[in-house]
């Protein structure tokens, strides 16, 4: 008999806090439904008091999802808890996740308080949340740097006050795996009433140890893990769901099982990456493009003789199917619909017809349509409501000549045109654009995603544009890389010019 590990997904809360990764409510529902199909136990749907958008998302996700528990984050503040309870009212199973900083730096500098006062506030928040829901999780923020003896007192107090789950976040990603494991062990051994609650891990990846720390937490008694798809999250991110699921699936000797249907991992990983415009590093464990690519001669030879020589995971177990039908201009709607389904996207006939039309245009330009292309096509209507749209772009460039660009924009239906020269085709096009949009904008980052399938591939461009002290993120995808760059710039501008 293996021990059940609960998977608490925070892609839509901690993951979504990453600048530039914000999703709208429709996109969040799409991710939540895919998380449900993946088999996660708890979905942290947002921080309702933080914005009307977060509130609405928690409401809509609660309505859209059936069996996972829906969780809403709060501070240890009555108003936050009131708003969270209101947002959760449609959830079939609901949880309030409240908490406060427990490390000395948090107590002293953030709250200008004392250890005793923090315990009082923790008890009060837990009791208050229990008035609304039966399932209350308490987080001891910065538990990673909280002295174990004091942490045990906080954990004991909140369990006595009614917490059903206690979260031990390594908020700053500071702990060593041994240290984090020992912390969980200490709590398991020193907290009176620990059997009445589940201890949860919540590890950040600042030193690249989030997964190792989470594993140590579980091996020492934690039975819930807080994770995100692709390990996204603030700074260096959170523990990645797919790594934890596959570690315990591969290491049966640990005696830990989860409810995750691992064959859905690949689809949801691509979906989240695409919706959040957040490329996955090629060497990312489990879901990176190269995760199963054996390039050295010795490895290739071994894998061809028997995959077990170098592969510890069958790619099919995470939903990667080498025999998947390749999509080309001759593929029909059914094949496209099936590929979208594998990638976790369910669409109606009208949307399928619309994507299929774009699919045929793209298939005319390139031989094979990849999963990334399909995801871009599925998300293409994200720019339909743009205030500023690119009508046309013409660029002349070459070696030994200065590049020249002319472009046409449509701004709320009105047409504008401009031309400029520049230090290259993108520079020329952006200079022309700035003649129409008179704002002090600075291009801060410009990433062209690797093109992997030949010179006819769709180029994907991510940009960060600074305006008025804020950074705005833009994304563009086009078989013409200059057009993709201009589209990304325009996408970013649309976030601040309304
Ligand atoms: O990292 C952290 O401490 C958190 C808490 C709010 C749970 O995200
Ligand atoms: Zn966190």
In short:
With 498 residues, the protein is α/β, with parallel strands linked by helices. The protein contains 16 helices and 16 strands.
What this model shows, in words?
Residues 389-498 are annotated as: Regulatory domain. Its EC number is 2.3.3.13. Residues 5-266 form the Pyruvate carboxyltransferase domain. GO terms for molecular function: 2-isopropylmalate synthase activity. Catalyzes the condensation of the acetyl group of acetyl-CoA with 3-methyl-2-oxobutanoate (2-ketoisovalerate) to form 3-carboxy-3-hydroxy-4-methylpentanoate (2-isopropylmalate). This protein has 498 residues and is an alpha/beta fold. It folds into three domains: 6-275, Aldolase class I (TIM Barrel, Alpha-Beta Barrel); 297-381, Recoverin, domain 1; 386-493, Double Stranded RNA Binding Domain (2-Layer Sandwich), CATH 3.30.160.270. It contains 16 helices and 16 strands. It has helices spanning 25-38, 52-64, 78-87, 104-110, 115-130, 148-161, 177-190, 210-219, 241-250, 265-275, 297-305, 333-342, 349-365, 371-378, 425-436, 481-493; strands at 3-4, 6-9, 42-46, 69-73, 94-101, 136-141, 165-170, 198-203, 224-227, 256-257, 388-396, 403-411, 414-422, 441-448, 459-467, 470-478. Helix 1 (25-38) packs across helix 2 (52-64), helix 2 (52-64) packs parallel to helix 3 (78-87) and helix 6 packs across helix 7. The longest helix has 17 residues, at 349-365. The radius of gyration is 25 Å and the shape is globular. The model has no long low-confidence stretch (mean pLDDT 92). Bound molecules: 3-methyl-2-oxobutanoic acid and zinc ion. Residues 14, 139, 141, 167, 169, 171, 202, 204 line the site of 3-methyl-2-oxobutanoic acid.
């Amino acid at each position: 008999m293996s021990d059940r590990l609960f998977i608490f997904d925070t892609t839509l809360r901690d993951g979504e806090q990453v600048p530039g990764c914000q999703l709208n409510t429709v996109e969040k529902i799409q991710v939540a439904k895919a998380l449900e199909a993946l088999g996660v136990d708890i979905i942290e749907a947002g921080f309702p008091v933080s914005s009307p958008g977060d509130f609405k998302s928690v409401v809509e996700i609660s309505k859209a999802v059936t069996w996972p528990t829906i969780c809403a984050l709060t501070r240890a503040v009555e108003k936050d808890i009131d708003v969270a309870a209101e947002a959760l009212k449609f959830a079939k199973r609901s949880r309030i996740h409240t908490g406060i900083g427990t490390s000395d730096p948090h107590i002293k500098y953030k709250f200008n308080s004392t250890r005793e006062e923090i315990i009082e506030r923790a008890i009060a928040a837990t009791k208050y949340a229990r008035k609304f829901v039966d399932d209350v999780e308490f987080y001891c923020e910065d538990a990673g740097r909280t002295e174990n003896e004091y942490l045990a007192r906080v954990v004991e107090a909140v369990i006595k006050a009614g917490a059903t789950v206690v979260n031990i976040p390594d908020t700053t990603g500071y702990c060593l795996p041994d240290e984090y494991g020992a912390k969980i062990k200490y709590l398991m051994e020193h907290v009176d009433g620990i059997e009445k609650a589940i201890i949860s891990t919540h590890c950040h990846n600042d030193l690249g140890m989030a997964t190792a720390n989470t594993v140590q937490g579980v091996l020492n008694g934690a039975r819930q893990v807080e994770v995100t798809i692709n390990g996204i999250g603030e700074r260096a991110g959170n523990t990645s769901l797919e790594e934890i699921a596959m570690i315990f699936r591969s290491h049966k000797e640990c005696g830990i099982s989860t409810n995750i249907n691992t064959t859905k991992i690949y689809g949801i990983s691509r979906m989240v990456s695409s919706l959040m415009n957040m490329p996955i590093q090629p060497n990312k464990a489990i879901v990176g493009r190269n995760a199963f690519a054996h390039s050295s001669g010795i490895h290739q030879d071994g894998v061809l003789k028997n995959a077990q020589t170098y592969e510890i995971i069958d790619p099919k177990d995470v939903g990667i199917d080498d025999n998947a039908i390749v999509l080309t201009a001759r593929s029909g709607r059914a094949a496209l619909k099936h590929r979208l389904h594998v990638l976790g996207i369910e669409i109606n006939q009208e949307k399928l017809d619309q994507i299929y039309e774009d699919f045929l245009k793209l298939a005319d330009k390139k031989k094979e349509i990849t999963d990334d292309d399909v995801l871009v096509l599925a998300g293409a209507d994200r720019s339909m409501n743009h205030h500023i749209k690119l009508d046309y772009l013409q660029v002349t460039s070459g070696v030994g000549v200065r590049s020249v660009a002319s472009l046409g924009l449509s701004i709320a239906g009105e047409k504008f045109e401009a031309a400029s020269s520049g230090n290259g085709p993108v520079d020329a096009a952006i200079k022309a654009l700035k003649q129409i949009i008179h704002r002090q904008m600075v291009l801060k980052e410009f990433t062209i995603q690797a093109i992997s399938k030949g010179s006819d591939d769709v180029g994907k461009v991510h940009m960060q544009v600074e305006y008025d002290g804020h950074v705005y993120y833009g994304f563009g995808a086009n078989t013409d890389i200059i057009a993709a760059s201009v589209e990304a710039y325009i996408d970013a501008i649309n976030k601040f010019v309304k």
